[in-house]
Amino acid sequence: MKKFLAIIILSLFLINLSQADDIRDLQIEGMSIGDSALDFFPESLIKNGTKNNPINSPNQKYEVTTIYTKKTGNYINVADFDFAVFEAVEITYKKNDKNYVIEAVAGAITNEKRKNIKNVQDCKKQKDKIFNDIKAVFNNPLIQSDEGVPPTDKYGKSKYFRSAIQLTPKSKYLEVEALCLFYKGKVRKDYVTNVGVTIKTDGVNDWLHAIYK
To answer: Which residues contact 155 (CB under 8 A, 6 or more apart)?
Structure first.
């Protein structure tokens, strides 16, 4: 089943919520910014997920790989173990980095298996639930929310809902996002509806802003 999450495209959990004040304190499926993806997955799986991810192009600064939990079974790039919470993760690393150091990591629950996102209202509700759990551990965080059409849907039928937190006052961007992507129409043959969380560095945010400004 050749479908993609495309979480990271929006500038898009098991997260250690111990009053974290540094992006490296946060984890998704045990992975943090600065870790090597090789500590979690074989290089062949990382490369395969990179090759098949439509966000990647030859001359870009970063590359993105998507890897699914073992129990999904029918996706194109599946790990040999089950994830604790999510059905899929997306990892962003610098192009040609042989250590595959994680610059952004996202985790998502898809609608392919659970079938529990019936409409955009369900999607938004589940995103809000995740985000409320995240923001509860921060003291008066800066929060922003928005919604619109995902840039991956050229037909304009799909919808995203996003809420984000700025980790510290000195942060250049809002580094932690809860996101729902609800796909409708023709684009559903390529992308799958999902709800999840993304954490990312300023470098990745700069790259995404340049692409989708």
So the answer is: 185, 186, 187
Residue 75 CB contacts under 8 Å (≥ 6 apart), including other chains: 1, 3, 68, 88
Q: What is the pLDDT of residues 6-20, one digit of tens each?
A: 544 343 333 444 444
Residue 169 lies in a domain: yes
> What pLDDT score was predicted for residue 213?
62
pTM of the model: 0.83
Asked if residue 46 is part of any domain, the answer here is: yes
Q: Is residue 119, in this structure, part of any structural domain at all?
A: yes
Residue 3 inside a domain? The answer is no
* Total number of domains constituting the chain: 1
Burial class from Cβ neighbours inside 10 Å (0-12, 13-18, 19+) for residue 58 reads: exposed
